[in-house]
Task: structure prediction
Amino acid sequence: MPVSPEKLRIGVIGVGGHGTKHLDCFTACPHAELAAVCDVNEELVREQAERYKVASAHTDYREMLAEADVDAVAVVLPDHLHRDACEAAFDAGKHVLVEKPMATSVADAEAIVAAWKRAGTKLMVNWSNRWMPGFSLTKAALDAGELGEPLYIYARLNNTLRVPTKMLSWSGNTTLPHWLMCHRLDIARWYVGCEVTKVRAVSRSKVLKGMGIDTPDFYQATLEFESGAVGNFENCWVLPESMPWTVDSKFQLVCTNGYVNIDPLLPVHVMATPEGASYQTPLFANVLGKPQGFVYDALCHFVESVLDGREPLITGDDGLALTKALCAVVESAETGETIEL
Result:
């Protein structure tokens, strides 16, 4: 079905950090209209409203939902704050795009899904890595039968120490499974086409704990799926800040009739100045004043799905299934027990 010529009026809840990318993308998306912004930081939300020429600016999302003329909202809040904003948006009859992870507890995820199904609107969880070419091309090859069945997945996704100590003020309120592992588990679940049945995980706390941040430095988890496929997932966020880039990623897929290796974040453009070095990948960049790449493509997909009246690629059901598995990883690491789902 072709995209409707009308525009989806969107309000963004949380306009600092990653919220700025949402503002950029929705401003550029041809079928979206950035209609309202909201953030508890009054100075920030006023600055963003002026920068993006948005007349409706709020410091309370309930006020925004009641007063602003929006069809949908993007919830771009810290991981542990998604539930209340999503429930309020659904109660107001809005479509919702919520940043990953959908929630950090099964109870919160179940509450979001219940509110979504009561509302009868659209819900997409923004695991935008599905729009990275390497991952989407692999999915197409799997669907075409070119690789056979997935047998084993190795997925590493790490951050430097800058992320939990400087980029996030709330890193003690989340864990690496929710912050990073969720990206690669979403890809793995997409590929194998079934749910996790068994989880064994370990974690250690030393570096961040010594800095007063109560969250583990790393997790290693072995997950088994209903199909018999096995995944080995690694995450840490205490790599040295001296590394040339913030994200360290590796993904390997072994199938009954093939193999795939994906290093999605290798830079193609590195620039050094006296102040430091920066890099760009083919996955996200601003090209001649317009955002490009997987984040932009994912947000536009949400807009087009709502306007076309179809379900987004990633729904609340996916979010709930992933939350259950991610919480099992945390539980296994804390208890030393194997968790069966």
